[in-house]
Design a protein that fits this description.
five-stranded parallel beta sheet, 2 domains, elongated, alpha/beta, single chain, five-stranded antiparallel beta sheet
Length: 236
């Protein structure tokens, strides 16, 4: 996880950075002002969380939050405001502006953990991949498991010389591609190619147009089994 930490106090940045490292975060970018933070945000990619002080000289944390919510690539990024403002109106204003959460000063490591750790775990879970080997006739079982568990994401397949990818949305097969095929034929080819391993990534995906499949998932697997039987009877 990559975190941008914004605070005009060098001491506060050091204390928060130390706590984040104790939480298992090693990729921390520090900024001493809102202006520096904006330069970093415009330059860098892959920032997963912003923790910013509210009251800073120049661009405040609240103004930084407003700017982030106007940027398409950072519109959904979690932002935590660190503030000494504990009155309800300030908290409501921060949440209405798009703050994910806030933390009231002064706070300790435990309070920081309560705000940060759920976001770290969520990021870790979203990046976790299920993987394994595929035995003889095992691909159908893997795909049925992903269908019945209602998964959304993509399943990468691999053998010694070829690869494939099957896309899912809420348990429905929505697309496929392989080394030389797209759409339904790619799905069937993955069965013929005796794929040896799979890796599933749970995330929202956009299926490339040539790879889109509209047939029902159950019908696809039945047709794949039928073709595989014919293929084996012909080739012994």
């Amino acid at each position: 996880m990559r975190i941008l930490l914004v605070d005009d106090s060098d001491l506060i940045r050091r204390l928060i950075s130390a706590a984040l490292r104790d939480f298992g975060v090693s990729d921390i970018i520090e900024a001493e002002s809102g202006e520096t933070a904006l330069a970093i945000l415009n330059r860098e990619t892959g920032i997963d969380l912003v923790i910013t002080d509210w009251h800073m000289p120049g661009i405040s944390g609240f103004e930084l939050l407003t700017y982030l919510r106007s940027m398409p690539k950072y519109r959904e990024i979690p932002v935590i405001l660190s503030t000494s403002e504990s009155d309800g109106a300030s908290v409501v204003a921060a949440l209405k502006a798009g703050a994910t959460n806030y933390i009231i000063k002064p706070y300790g490591k435990q309070q920081l953990a309560e705000k940060i750790l759920p976001l770290i775990r969520a990021k870790s879970d979203s990046q976790a991949a299920q993987s394994g080997t595929i035995g003889l006739d095992g691909l159908g079982a893997v795909l049925q498991f992903l269908m019945h568990s209602g998964r959304s994401g993509y399943c990468e397949l691999q053998n010694d010389s070829e690869s494939g990818c099957i896309y899912f949305n809420a348990g429905r097969i929505e697309g496929a591609q392989s080394t030389h095929h797209s759409g339904e034929e790619a799905l069937y080819h993955c069965f013929f190619a005796n794929m040896k391993s799979y890796r599933f990534y749970e995330k929202d995906v956009h299926v490339p147009k040539p790879s889109v499949i509209t047939a029902s998932s159950t019908a696809l697997l039945m047709e794949a089994a039928r073709r595989l039987d014919i293929h084996r009877s012909i080739n012994g």
